[in-house]
Specification:
The strands form two sheets. This protein has a six-stranded mixed β-sheet with strand order 6-7-8-3-9-10, with helices on both faces. A four-stranded antiparallel β-sheet has the order 2-1-4-5, covered by helices on one side. 33% of the residues are buried. The chain contains 20 helices and ten strands. Helix content is 62%, strand content 10%. The two termini are 64 Å apart. The protein is an alpha/beta fold. The radius of gyration is 35 Å and the shape is elongated. A hairpin with a 2-residue loop joins strand 4 and strand 5. The longest helix has 53 residues. It binds adenosine-5'-diphosphate and magnesium ion.
Length: 559
């Protein structure tokens, strides 16, 4: 947490000093009171003296209020900036996380971390730590002032403060637990909402609004319960604190009153002790409360800070793609799946050649492509590019050489142009080329603003086939040597699919691995190799002529 709380040493020190000034002014008021009461209760005191003292006291309070306002202003700005920095670091590290690690979590979890948990950490953690010096200074100055008045009174008051530590001892553990449980409940709630929004078509179509509503209400009820537990604990901790503080104040007054009766101190000192006991016990109570809050969010804080860690160092550099990709005895199973999805797969893909990958649904085609795209790293065997082991290459480095178009591509809330030229490099010729290859020309012409038409995934104004083609154009625009295409024509009509595939096969220098189940007889022979998969294995890998002769492809051919 320190990294964020002391994000600027100078500002932090200035803030702490400001808080010290505020605490001194706050405690100083007790001494002003003592002076005021002693002056007006002295023998021969006059009304003029009273008005003079009150005037000074009012002036003092005015200055104190000004310091208070300035302190609060600076403190709030400082805390909010610390939270902003943590949020930025979280986004940074999530974006730089290995794809596999990122994808192994539901995005709802990240959202709830970035919204709810960060708020808890900000309020309970940052806020508590940053405001803590106020209470510490107030307490220290109050003790000093008490010693200034009378050391016996001061020592007694100090001894009584030990009682305050009952609160953190009793409440810390339950608070910690309640925080973690609430965080889990929020995660569930966010996940349920996300699913519902994404699947709203199904919900509507099945007329299952009520069932969905009930389900969300059930999760919401759990959320409410966890929230109540936490709030209750927080309030109880405060209530017990107030009770103890009142007891201690009464104790202090009893001691000071007794000493006044013994003529050791004057009435002014008793009044000052009343004021000082507030200055001493309340801040200490706050310190204990904040310690409880801070320790209550420790687990959450650790989760967030672990998430905000900068990503690991990058791997070897690749200098362009020269020879090819080799997959050697690769076996891979998805987590929580007993069977291996890929079994002992070996294949070599040479630079510049075109490969068609066919096979029944579920035979492992997409998985193989994903491994070649370094989406997953937990495989056995070896994958190499130009002789360099994938395990030694960072995603970022590899992706400079690979464009991957999936069956379903995501469209951002941007224009067609910005969706294709995603990094905004602005190469008009390349854009033209990408639109051409993906057969998007007619689509672009049909838009009122052409390439500058705003499109949106969320409001479904674009068809599945159009989406696929924009995704493909995006991959083409990336202009890498290697193109991994996973069923990129599956939502297109037969004719358009044919033209798109033909265009892709005409890309002379590109190495293309095309997974498809739409086979066109006269395009088959344009591939250099056809790879047939079945049950997670490669069962055929040969030039098209050889496979066609054996009729090995007929089961994958369209009518
Ligand atoms: P294909 O692309 O040939 O249809 P896939 O490679 O997508 O096949 O899937 C192969 C097998 O792996 C299927 O049985 C599928 O259920 C399983 N599978 C695919 N993706 C995942 C995943 N993310 N988690 C678990 N199992 C998966
Ligand atoms: Mg697939």
């Amino acid at each position: 947490m320190k990294r964020y709380i002391v994000y600027s040493k100078i500002k932090f020190i200035a803030l702490v000093l400001f808080k010290a000034l505020y605490a001194a002014a706050f405690v100083g008021f007790a001494l002003i009171l003592q002076w005021l009461v002693n002056t007006i209760t002295a023998d021969g005191a006059t009304a003029d003296q009273l008005f003079f003292c009150v005037g000074i006291a009012i002036g003092y309070v005015a200055v104190f209020t000004a310091i208070l306002l300035l302190k609060d202003k600076a403190s709030t700005a400082y805390i909010n900036k610390a939270v902003m920095l943590l949020r930025n670091d979280l986004t940074h590290s999530l974006l730089h996380e290995r794809y596999e690690d990122f994808a192994s979590n539901d995005t709802a979890k990240y959202l709830s971390h970035l919204t709810n948990d960060i708020k808890t950490v900000a309020v309970s953690g940052f806020n508590s730590v940053i405001t803590l010096p106020e209470e510490i200074f107030t307490f220290v100055f109050a003790v000093a002032a008490a010693f200034f008045i009378n050391y016996v009174v001061a020592l007694t008051m100090l001894g009584l403060t030990l009682l305050i530590f009952i609160v953190p001892v009793v409440f810390n553990k339950p608070l910690n637990r309640a925080n973690v449980r609430l965080s889990d409940a929020v995660k569930q709630y966010t996940a349920a909402l996300k699913q519902t929004f994404l699947g709203i078509d199904v919900v509507k179509n099945f007329g299952s609004e009520e069932r969905t509503e009930r389900e969300i209400a059930r999760i919401n009820e759990t959320l409410c319960k966890k929230n109540t537990v936490l709030d209750k604990l927080n309030l109880y901790a405060g209530d017990v604190g107030i009770f103890i503080v009142v007891l201690l104040q009464l104790g202090s007054i009893a001691i000071a009153g007794y000493m006044m009766l013994q003529s050791v101190i004057l009435i002014g000192a008793v009044i000052a002790v009343v004021q000082l006991s507030g200055n001493m016990y309340s801040p200490l109570m706050q310190i204990a409360g904040k310690a409880a809050l801070i320790s209550g969010i420790r687990e959450l804080d650790e989760t967030l800070l672990a998430m905000a860690q900068p990503p690991e160092a990058q791997g070897e550099k690749l200098f362009g793609f020269e020879r090819g990709i080799r997959v050697e005895n690769v076996g891979f199973g998805y987590p929580d799946h007993e069977d291996l999805t890929l079994k002992n797969v070996s294949a070599a893909f040479e630079k510049g050649k075109k490969y068609l990958i066919v096979g029944k649904s579920g035979s492992g085609k997409s998985t193989l492509l994903k491994l070649i795209g370094k989406t997953f790293n937990g495989y056995v065997g070896k994958i190499e590019i130009d002789g360099v082991d994938y395990r030694n290459i960072s995603e970022r480095e590899l992706y400079k050489n690979i464009a991957f178009a999936q069956q379903k591509s995501y469209l951002f809330d941007l224009t067609v142009r910005e969706n294709i030229d995603f990094n905004g490099t602005g190469d008009a010729q390349l854009l033209e080329h990408a639109v051409e290859i993906a057969e998007l020309r007619d689509f672009v012409l049909a838009q009122k603003n052409g390439l500058d038409e705003q499109i949106s995934e969320e409001i479904n104004q674009i068809s599945g086939g159009e989406k696929q083609r924009v995704g493909l154009a995006r991959a083409i625009y990336k202009d890498t040597d290697i193109l991994l295409l996973d069923e990129v024509t599956s939502s297109l009509d037969k004719e358009t699919a044919y033209r798109v595939e033909k265009n892709i096969l005409a890309l002379r220098d590109k190495t293309v691995l095309n997974v498809s189940h739409k086979l066109h007889a006269d395009l088959l022979e344009k591939y250099d190799y056809i790879c047939v998969m079945d049950g997670g294995k490669i069962v055929g890998f040969a030039p098209p002529a050889a496979l066609l002769k054996n009729n090995a492809l007929s089961q994958y051919m369209d009518a």
